[in-house]
Amino acid sequence: MGKATPILVGIHHLEQREADPRVAREPIQLMIEAVKQAAIDAGCAELLKAGSVRVIKGIWPYQNPAKAVAEAIGCANAETVLSPFGGNFVQTTVSQSALDIQNGVHDIIVITGAECGSTAAKAAKAKTDLNWSDLPGEPDRRIGEDKDMRHEAERAIRLGRPIAVYPIMEIALRNELGLGVEEHLEKISELWASFSRVAADNPNAWIRDAKSAEEIRTPSSINRPVSFPYPKFMNSNDNVDQAAALIMCSEEKAKALGIPRDKWIYPWAGSDAHDHYYLSNRDNFYSSPAIRFAGNRCLEMAGVEAHNLDMVDVYSCFPVAVQIASRELKLDTSMPLTVTGGLTWAGGPLNNYVMHSIVRMAQLLREKQGQKGLITANGGYITKHAFGVYSSEPPTRPYQHADLQEQVDQTLKRDVAINHSGHGVVEGYSVIYGPQGMEKAFVATRLADDRRAWGVCHDPDVLSSMTKEEFCGRTVRLEDHVAHF
Fold it and tell me: How confident is the model at residue 1 (pLDDT cuts 50, 70, 90)?
């Protein structure tokens, strides 16, 4: 391979479980430690003399965190980079970094990110101000851009939280698969139990006591209903303090620095695409053209068929995300679909989860020389997607990347009726719980002219029935955003 072959040489995962939020370290401190530990992992302090430091955007006040990281590790003049929000952007940033190394833009690149959701939750409960740093300034470069992902029709009914949107897609998929309500709950709880078993064997996982399928699907004092069909144990767990770091360099640089060959992990190929930004415009709620086109193109460029993958980590904020990706990529669902345990059990540090999945994948690929692994990444509402194939073995051709957006944009874009009065047919819904029980249901409908329209139902009898019976395919009357059954 040529001298500009990109490789991943340093990795680190860390977490803190500090009971007192006043003494817990803030995210930037965790990032700095993670980067230093990644250089130790590679056995080479010289890797801290990076040409570029890249940070994944998080829920913190920092404006230019990469500058603080660069100064702390001794490369104050490094390029500073920041991503937008989105769980896809770790893999997107790795892909861009691989291209930058391959094209000779930089020979060492540091990527890091951190979230302190656990500390933030404790501080909020204690009414304690965390006083995290501001870190002002503008990064030298931004990878990707922030996009509004809520349609006017969705805003009109206050639909936007992932815990309300993903169940709509889950129920639409349930109907597409022809599963009964209880049969479906058993299926997705078995899936999540399989993820929990992986987390139990992952030293990096936040929750390592394996949960049974029955525990996962049954509401309890520690597993409250959130939004049917998902209790708490089927939701991403952002109540974690976790950080990770990756250090990439060229093969030539690794040789010059004497980094042991058994530390090297090669990115083989990467791809990106997004589905229609507005959920309302999508053809249906149970498929993803972007995953289909970009994910399969990534495998094709890597010369790997899905059934020949040794390991996969499918982005797992909610069960429906795993199921849709598995269907689109034709993954072998008899094998584990995660290397970490997923965002519920391993931990879901918001936008940075994929950095942890790449760290874990790299750890396993180092142990299992010659194997190949696929990383999938998802941002928004199964909206923004990125993919990467990795191996301890070098690829047979230079690193390749593809953007499949043009192909996705040609797919059907459904029109939307705002504040429609009249009848429609239900195609998906979610029942939202509050402190007093069921509060409302968001209902997606298809109109006679094939447009989509939204409504909200507050009828307690209907809400209760929605958790026991299939409402997809039923006729509903919409009036002033209210769904009447």
Answer: very low
Query: Tens digits of per-residue pLDDT, 48-78?
Result: 999 999 999 999 999 999 999 999 999 999 9
421-435 pLDDT, tens digit each: 999 999 999 999 999
Characterize the bridge pairing of strands 241-250 and 6-15.
antiparallel
**Which long-range contacts (C-beta less than 8 Å, at least 24 apart) are formed by 187-190?**
188/217, 188/229, 188/234, 188/319, 188/323, 189/213, 189/214, 189/216, 189/217, 189/234
CB 170 within 8 Å of CB 320? yes
Nearest Cα to Cα of residue 272 among 144, 105, 103? 144
- What is the pTM for the complete model shown? 0.97
Say if residues 169 and 285 touch (Cβ distance below 8 Å).
yes
Name the strands in the sheet holding 6-15, side by side, starting at the edge strand that comes first in the sequence.
6-15, 241-250, 108-116, 52-55, 79-82, 141-142
Look-up of token digits 């990106």: 272
Residue among 378, 243, 387 at smallest CA distance from 322: 378
What H or E segment, with its residue span, contains residue 443? strand 437-446
Tokens of 76: 């104050």
Identity of the amino acid at 164: A
> Would you say residue 153 has pLDDT above 80?
yes
Per the listing, tokens 């360099």 go with 249
Estimate the share of the chain in helix, then strand, then coil, as percent rounded to the nearest 5.
Answer: 35, 25, 40
